[in-house]
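Anyone opening a protein record will find just a pair of labelled lines. The record below illustrates this layout.
***
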Amino acid sequence: MNKSPAIVMTRLDVQRLEKVMAEIPAPLEMLEALEDEMLRARVISHRQIAKDVVTMNSTVRFVDEASDREFVLTLVYPDQAGRPGTISVLAPVGMALIGLKVGQSINWQGPAGRPLRLKIIDVLYQPEANGDFHL
């Protein structure tokens, strides 16, 4: 994972993700990659997060600049993944998206080692911006 842009996460998301990581039987390298993202994030209150930042349960429009494909996905916890339009925070793309804001790009290694360059185009829904702190 190359030079990464600054990211911001809410304290609530960090606490919830720590709980998920403690309980889920995921491969160690997957959990370590998410932990690395959490450790490099600037953590702030869920009431202070900007509306253009990707948080858990956000619906985000982004482009993979490597393939020029555009996607709209909701970033979810692993137990909610698998439904159409969702991406788990434990998936490579999910880990790359969390904490980014509109206009930021990140180089990331995707499935089977395929390079990704993801750029956030828009945050269509963010729970914190809508007062949905229970999600």
The two ends are 29 Å apart (CA to CA). The CA atoms of residues 55 and 98 lie 6 Å apart.
